[in-house]
């Protein structure tokens, strides 16, 4: 890891946002926005065609704009990634694929269940689709369907026209009335025999009402996939292929998956038959039903596993393999952010991707882990684990969508810290918007781009994220523990069943407990385990090296994975299992052929697992074959469950038997203690559990043998605990496979450095001597939401506990796609990854060897809190800040206020009325009068405003195509009137009416106190977005009540007043009785995390100024300045000027500043705090209430007289 690259991370490690192309894409504006990205430290962008795009997608104009953007990016040193769809999910090429392949429209498989009693006549209607399966099974005395005696009902189906059509026309002059029918459905008519029956029907239905194009493409249709590549990827190659592998880095595919609850494609039955030699349609009942006896239960489990595995492989081999192959051929990297049936779904990604981090500061870590753990798409740990195992240097998360407009730099930093501490090192921001015009601002916001007031300070976050990404891309992952994912058991047990749910929840429980211990670990799919190399008591997979394997409760496991576990254990690897062992081979006949084998390896009798499913039973007492009583430790004396009991097999294989679920037995603590004793963990935590549970950590081993750990405090409280690092190289394996005690190398000395992610510098953290067990103890103390990056190295000749001979990932330069990735060579017909080099996987990342030794040149400038200051004269005084004294000063209760932008009154709520037809611009019309008495509506398309009413009434028109039903539509045009009123208490000198160009859809006129305003009168205004327009309305305002009327002629459903109008100027705003009043701007305010009094809708930069009296100067030459009275909920960007000196910027916690004693004087010390707010009060009329963790109307922030 090189100091100069850490200080100035290369572009590829920096933030890569989705850049939403959602407007006219003016070439000059495109170039300006790229320059802005470069200036603020952004590394590049994903070029995303998005809703609102005015250029025809895939047209010549589109590719001309793409070429322009790529060339401009090249001039400014930015990298470009191609997003392969408009808008999303990928695979349909803007709808063109299904035009060429009508048979490739996406279809879903829907089950329908009925219970009947006969004899009786029964008739039922189903959607018009292909009936794939229809059977009726008699129920036995225990209400279990006996599918072996089922009756096939497919022959009882027929087509039916369900809708009666009358038409007022004829084919001759003698007859003017016709009768038709319409609306085909499938109808089943069956005579139910005596007894009770369960009927199950599966219907294949075409997806007809999906976003953007009404349908979607079947990603398992190989010809359609090739057409997608030809229409999209080949065109990009023609346009910017000369930049491939240099400026253009790769291709991003998004959200490709099966749409139905049950994975389905018309191609699946044939693929299933190819793999398993049977037709799945005959056994579909096992997807939703269990067997009546042991044989049927085994058949059901076997079929469910095979069905899901076939669906998993079909999608992966048809879509992802094809796109990966195209990228390999063109020297590009392939990154996917997609749902997956199992973790190995992204086997073909050069860079695995996911979608996570959508919270505001204050969500507890426990809540977040519970939300995401177990989702292969949303759990960052799953994504980074897969990257480690595929040999990919990078792991990507698409982050921040839908956090909303209150998102701050603090929110972003807090979420980035969490992602990084879970192994993510590629930060894909959602998103940078080309424009916020009109409704475009509601596309899963926010935009973290130039529109936000914090943008001039965005470089602080960009540099921080770049350093974090660079550091955590070096070396190799240091986790030695893998947790096997129980997907095969979930499939076999039947997803959603109580047994599958218990298995899943215990897996999630264990992973959450490990994360909050905190311990570093990886998830491991059994399919990938089967492809790993097992040697020297290690599981080697890509860049990952595991010495310990943890099995959460399992029932079914692929035999190839079990053979790897056996080999690992036989070589001395540590295997811990809990709750239930995998006793059934998921891939074969479904018999319990593994049962005795697996149980013997863990020394467990049959009754040792039975209690897991029966929480009422006590655990069996530990016989002599079990571990000593002292090892069978109760972890919670208050728990009602019986004491968890350890069993040990002939190797280092341990099984923890529990009564009921692991969560009920509180088993995680027992398992973690065993891991600490047996696993030789290179890094772990000691201290109070509640202190450790606030943190996450990620560990890496660098090429020179030094260690790197990143720790993030995710909670709003200070924490302190001890980081324990094993620095004893004697820890290893004896010839008998037993782990040697890590007790050598007592007294080894290690130097620990703190690599400052904000400043880009390095400084000594401590020098520590390892204890008699070779454990280095590093104290960790973090304030609320703080993080730290530490690097340690031992004295000459001693290496940090690391895998000898393991080559670390490259640490130098840019990794180009052409030299780092080899073509895919796996077979489409193989249900597990084919054996290839490095464990049989298509590894994503290359490896290289040496790096330049750490060199920290003396810089003539230092960075204090983000602001460069010339400090040569006092450089010897500057320290890391960890040991600086803190001087606390009172924050004055009243501060003078200066606004850097005009204040605003947001008008987003109007009285509403409408009339059929078009009306002229008359502010005194009947319609305008009706609006004064009309209902209140929020700004949105007019049809939604009508629908929100208590009794919606619409003007309608009728039309009918020959032979089809009479259709009803809204009769256009319709004239809508919107009325808002406000009071003027103090007439400001300047007031303009402002709006987005797209705020009003349809022909419109605006009246301010009956003065007409047209579109031609509006001019561009300097505001948060280039689409902003305005007009001076000060001459038309009057003291007292003022009215603003908007008339819109709507010609389609999406017309109307869809976005707020604003009054902007030098005035204050208060609400009296819910009505807005323009007043004077307050001269003084108190400091608050809420919108300030008089400024409920203000968005921009403001300065608060005051004076602090200091009687005695601090003794220290350098110290931290902190404020008493600083609101703990504050999370905006703050800048401090002290006695005229710009001290620095704090974009996030801790809100303290480093001062020199010479900056302070006795007596009065004037200061200014400059705050950059969020856009939420302006765009949404809302603010984030941190105490309640919810958005609230700005009118809730203050009552008149407060503040």
TrEMBL record:
<feature type="compositionally biased region" description="Low complexity">
    <location>
        <begin position="808"/>
        <end position="818"/>
    </location>
</feature>
<dbReference type="InterPro" id="IPR029062">
    <property type="entry name" value="Class_I_gatase-like"/>
</dbReference>
<dbReference type="Pfam" id="PF17132">
    <property type="entry name" value="Glyco_hydro_106"/>
</dbReference>
<feature type="compositionally biased region" description="Low complexity">
    <location>
        <begin position="835"/>
        <end position="846"/>
    </location>
</feature>
<feature type="region of interest" description="Disordered">
    <location>
        <begin position="808"/>
        <end position="852"/>
    </location>
</feature>
<dbReference type="InterPro" id="IPR053161">
    <property type="entry name" value="Ulvan_degrading_GH"/>
</dbReference>
<dbReference type="InterPro" id="IPR008979">
    <property type="entry name" value="Galactose-bd-like_sf"/>
</dbReference>
<protein>
    <recommendedName>
        <fullName>Alpha-L-rhamnosidase-like protein</fullName>
    </recommendedName>
</protein>
